[in-house]
Amino acid sequence: MADGYQKDLAYTHDVGFGGFATAAAPGLLALLRRHGVSGGLVVDLGCGSGIWAGLLTDAGYDVLGVDYSVAMIALARKRAPGATFRVGSYLKAELPPCDAVTSIGECFNYLFDRDARVELTGLFGRVHNALRPGGVFVFDVLEPGQLRRGVPTRRHRVGGDWAVMVEVEEDAVQQVLTRSITSFRQVGKLYRRAEEVHRLRLYEGRELAAELERVGFRVRSLRHYGDFPLGKAHVALLARKE
After folding, report:
1. How far is Cα 169 from Cα 178, in angstroms, rounded to an integer?
2. Residues 82-110 pLDDT 10s
3. Which of 9, 11, 170, 215 is the most exposed place for a label (fewest CB within 10 A)?
4. One domain, residues 105 and 12
5. Is pTM, for the whole model, over 0.90?
6. Residues 131, 154: one domain?
7. Residue 29 burial by Cβ neighbours in a 10 Å radius (0-12, 13-18, 19+)
8. Contact at 8 Å (CB) between 105 and 140?
């Protein structure tokens, strides 16, 4: 399994970039309830530091979270002690019978442990088999067109005891986004530096919707979770098992 979100970047992501999960949660909970999933087991794939898992357990759901990052799972177990967490790839994780499967925050785009689209579409069939009739599968992905005219960009963000610098490039032909990340975390009076490179395959939402329909789902595309809008070229797919 490839390295990704090691200890320092996992910490930085949790304290500095957890706002997406927090803001998306009310709309996601409303979606689940509107489609008849008011309780039962939710499997959260790419659960990260457990922000969404913790909100689900607070709302009365049972939760199984899966993430490839050991550091993220350690944070998740502290944040949501009522949930169950496993370290591993969502492509290989055993999916128990469940009422909903979620994956929020562009997790399915990441290429840490795969490189082929066929592996992701194979997951769709496994999710369909695991869901009980009427179950819901909801996730969001980044689409091509992340950068204006494909021009590489540099971004940075600073917190109380951390800083992150990111160089972003988009290969329009391969439909791959590359983020070269340098993070700094304060340790005592000094800052520790770490570097990671994240590659993300970009997907057209309509193409993934067609593949979900082929395995038996009814599908809707969303550009927001409730009142929380998704960003540019960022789409959510809501799939329901009949």
Report:
1. 5
2. 999 999 999 989 999 999 999 999 999 99
3. 215
4. yes
5. yes
6. no
7. buried
8. yes
